[in-house]
Amino acid sequence: MQLAKWITQIQPQVPAAWVNRSWNLAYNISRNYEDPETRWKYVYDAVEMIRDEGIRYNPQEPLVYDQLAYLFEHKIGHNLDDHHRYYKYRWMQSMESVLWESPAAGHAAKGVPDFDSLINPDPADTNLVARVQRLRREYKLDPREMKAIHLKYGLARKLTYNDKEKKWELNELRLDEDGQPINCLDWRMPETHSLYWATLGLKRCSLTPGREQQLFRLEKKIYVAMMYTFQRGRMNYPSGEKVPDNFLSQFFDNSLMSSPNLAAAGATHLAYVHMIKLAQESRENHLTGGTSEIGHTHFLRRLIEWLYFYNREAEAQQWLDLAVELYPVKMTYWPGYNKETKTYNLKDIVFDKAKDDLERGSDSKTQALLI
């Protein structure tokens, strides 16, 4: 660790040095400790180091933003570490301490802060002013950027057919029973912060020369963060409660921390569309090589399957029609396509995908099937 620190001090503007050091902290050193709090300390040290120092010295290098986004998406957000639920809980506590006046307020708001009050805090509200200062100084989060990201990807959208243009669109927002827009991003969740840093990195580094491959990695982080928001981005655990002594068994016995977030379907689709379009239009060699488009079709296939199982068959059919509209050639390779009639059988597509999920699905996919 001392050697790694010296290397980054001597070469602070070498992004790979920061990436290597943060990776070592989060993935290697942390695994030497069984205690969840000690392990979390090293994981969060990795986040702090690259966020507070790596970006400071390399503000226009996409590699450092990519690594920071990956730590939130994978080390904290995924399930490959024995203590991943503890990491999620500790990060949720951190965000509740600055985005709302109490954990209960964050729970009532379903993880969506009042962005305007954070952008222009009332000077008379000393508690709010102190929280905004911590948000900016300690966590390096800009509420203006948070609001912009939320307006772009944080609102649930409805798929509608434009008869005039003869195509499917996502221009309409989904509204709740009170006529208010439905939110699909939770700012207590690590996936949302992966999206934040990937989006910020793409914005700051878009003009950095010779970084096309690294910029593509950032673009991928954006739609992958949204894909995971769809798969596991709905908070189940009542926030604000004290961590029980039998913390892990609490989740297995009573509830899981997160579950599928179907409200994020439209925003996730838009993330794929935006990044594919950006890559294709902004570079001579857009480097997608078809991988982004393939990932998009896989997402659409899972979306169709989950909507069907959640008793939203009409929506599933609409998304199938959209997939055919976007990828007419790729779709002919899907199970359920009849070459003679050139039609698609929704049920065949759904149950073929379900069979695959049953045989080798992840926890979030298995959870969706069980529900």
Topology record:
Elements (H helix, E strand, L loop, with lengths): L1 H9 L4 H15 L6 H22 L4 H15 L7 H16 L3 H6 L6 H5 L6 H12 L5 H11 L3 E6 L4 E7 L16 H16 L6 H21 L1 E2 L11 H7 L4 E2 L5 H18 L8 H19 L3 H14 L10 E2 L4 E2 L1 H15 L2 H8 L1
Antiparallel strand pairs: 1-2, 3-4, 5-6
Helix pairs in contact: 1-2, 2-3, 2-4, 3-4, 4-10, 4-11, 10-11, 11-13, 13-14, 14-15, 14-16
Distance between the termini: 45 Å
Radius of gyration: 21 Å
SSE order in H/E notation?
A: HHHHHHHHHEEHHEHEHHHEEHH
Overall residue-averaged pLDDT value: 89
Q: How would the global form be characterised?
A: globular
Q: Top keywords for this entry?
A:
371 residues, mainly alpha, two-stranded antiparallel ribbon, two-stranded antiparallel sheet, 6 strands, globular
Summarize the structure in words.
With 371 residues, this protein is mostly helical. It is built from 17 helices and six strands. The chain has a two-stranded antiparallel sheet. It has a two-stranded antiparallel sheet with strand order 3-4. Strands 5-6 form a two-stranded antiparallel ribbon. It is globular.
